[in-house]
Amino acid sequence: MICAIHQPQTFPWLGYIAKIMQSDVFVILDNVQFKKNEWQNRNRIKTQQGPQWLTVPVLHNFGQLISEVEINNNVNWRHKHIQSLQTNYAKADYFNQLMREIEEIYDREWNHLREFNLAGIKWILRLLKINTPIFMASEIPELKDRPEITPDERLILITRAVHADSYLSGAGGRDYLQTELFPRQNIRLMFQQFVHPRYKQLHGDFISYLSVLDLLFNEGPDQANKIIKGGIR
Fold first, then answer.
1. What digits encode the pLDDT tens for the residues 7-35?
2. Number of structural domains found in the chain
3. Where are the beta strands (DSSP E) in the chain?
4. Terminal Cα-to-Cα distance of the chain (whole angstroms)
5. Within 13 A of 224's CA, how many CA atoms are on the CB side?
6. Phi and psi dihedrals of 17, rounded to 5?
7. pTM reported for the whole predicted model
8. Domain span at residue 94?
């Protein structure tokens, strides 16, 4: 059984979704330090001027865990996101089909970043008919009161806790994982191989590594599922 583990991202990119597709169980890594200006509270869409960030403003202190990070609701970020999506995707083939559901997500009261990101991820998985079970790392008993644990040990412990025998890492894991630790714990270490597919887009030349929202608006859920699968090697 394959386990993949990743921090919760805001409407993540295609490779993130592909990793969930490839897994038998997916764990949201919400009990590690929040990193500002990465993908945990923002992602990119395509505009006539090129990529544009959709950023969820947050209130956080250095060293705070992702699960603890609050959204700064003093900023009208919901309206800004919706307006950006309407402006840049109104002519997309599946805009009318999907936009109402996206607005329903934004209409809810969100106080913590983790909950907003998780709602977006689960909505995407439902659209794409991906049934991989999702767990939260913060709810795994084996991780409680383990401040001394190293990042590699955390991944191994989580994989064992969900009764998986294989851990699927992103391709970048080759640069930082202590690969020898995994087989010592009888865990097969795998590295994702994902080739970013091309698909129909608005606004000129193709741009890769955008939020999966771009693919969904342009190709629709059924075709998006096939396109993402096509990038898995």
1. 999 999 999 999 999 999 999 999 999 99
2. 1
3. 2-6, 25-28, 42-47, 50-55, 58-59, 70-71, 134-136, 166-169, 188-191
4. 18
5. 27
6. -65, -40
7. 0.96
8. 2-230
